[in-house]
Design brief:
alpha/beta
């Protein structure tokens, strides 16, 4: 299906394109065979699927559109890969470069899930090594709270069903660190959803980063690196 879509759309030149989305998709899940996908963000329509995701392949396609198309693009949304950003800055200099929030949240959720697994392993080790029946009983209660907690932690809280809400309460009681990380995760979602002013958003994200650096070091560094590189503003995070 993806191959057919690529062949159908590959020669088309987008008309009236103002906001371009550049993402990637695996042709075969788990096989590492990725291709770039170009979307008109205003119409949510597919422009083309490229044969790969390299800078050269992307540049060839964009250059084929011509300056009459590229000069009219006002915004380009990309993942956090510097390669895409470099191509956009080179070929679409009038556009604002925007970090796709989906990829930001994916990284935050990945760190949260890693900590969830770490907490679970830690308690399992304590149960295995303790000789006190009382301590073992207490640890088993904590472990019960941590089991089956992936989706209640990672899913947006407003989308949880009643059972998942109850499980989230259990997790927060079982692990203070997961409680804090979940609250930070929900906080940045609110910043994305509820903040429209750029300067207010930067201030709020700065406050979030100061609290989150202990719990989300990789995400913290990624966001700071993006913001610093965009301080002479070709782009924003939104």
């Amino acid at each position: 299906m993806l191959k057919d879509a690529s062949e159908d759309n590959n020669n088309s030149k987008p008309m009236g394109l103002k906001r371009l989305g550049i993402d990637e998709i695996a042709l075969v899940k788990g096989k590492g065979n990725y291709c770039a996908v170009l979307i008109d963000l205003d119409t949510s329509k597919l422009i083309t699927i490229l044969s790969g995701r390299t800078q050269d392949i992307l540049k060839e396609t964009l250059m084929g559109w011509g300056v009459e198309v590229l000069d009219n693009i006002e915004e380009v949304s990309i993942d956090l890969w510097k390669g895409y950003k470099n191509v956009v800055i080179e070929l679409i200099p009038n556009a604002q470069v925007v970090a796709d929030r989906f990829h930001v949240m994916t990284q935050i959720n990945k760190e949260l899930d890693i900590q969830r697994k770490r907490e679970k392993r830690k308690i399992e080790e304590l149960i295995k090594n303790t000789k006190s029946e009382h301590e073992k009983s207490e640890y088993e209660k904590i472990l019960s709270g941590l089991k089956n907690s992936k989706y209640p932690l990672l899913k947006n809280e407003e989308n949880l069903n009643e059972e998942q809400v109850d499980k989230l309460i259990e997790v927060k009681k079982a692990s203070p660190i997961l409680k804090t990380m979940h609250e930070l995760k929900e906080k940045i979602i609110k910043i994305f959803n509820q903040t429209n002013d750029w300067y207010t958003a930067v201030f709020k994200i700065g406050m979030w980063l100061s609290k989150a650096k202990k719990y989300f070091p990789k995400s913290n560094n990624t966001i700071i690196r993006w913001l610093v590189s965009e301080a002479c503003p070709e782009g924003t995070l939104k």
